[in-house]
Amino acid sequence: MTADQLKDLIAAGIACDHITLEGDGRHWYATIVSATFVGQRTLQRQRAVYATLGNRMQTDEVHALSMKTFTPAEWAAQTD
Q: Pfam families in the record, alphabetically (predicted)?
């Protein structure tokens, strides 16, 4: 799976303000910013992202996905 394919899958399931992906095709690191995350704890956010991948984690299309998730306000505070 390419970074663009993975980005498209996530963006199709979650309205994202920003997505950055780095990886080698199986192991990925993502930074995801979405207003959807407002009021959610980290685990809820991660589950929402994993849900966008469907069974791709079980079929090993995506072997590993580490992520940082932010609301737009949290992201703005990070970049200041």
A: BolA (PF01722)
Please report, for residues 14, 59, 73, the alpha-carbon distance to residue 32 in angstroms, rounded to integers and kept in the order given: 10, 23, 13
% of the chain residues with pLDDT over 70:
98
23-40 residue pLDDT tens: 988 889 999 999 999 999
Write out pLDDT tens, residues 49-69. Answer: 999 988 887 787 788 899 999
In contact, 66 and 28? CB cutoff 8 Å:
yes
User: Exposed, middle or buried, 3 (CB in 10 Å: 0-12/13-18/19+)?
Assistant: middle
Q: Which domains does the chain have, with CATH numbers?
A: 3-79 (3.30.300.90)
Going by C-alpha positions, the residue among 8, 49, 57, 13 that lies closest to residue 32 is 49
Three-state DSSP at 76 gives helix
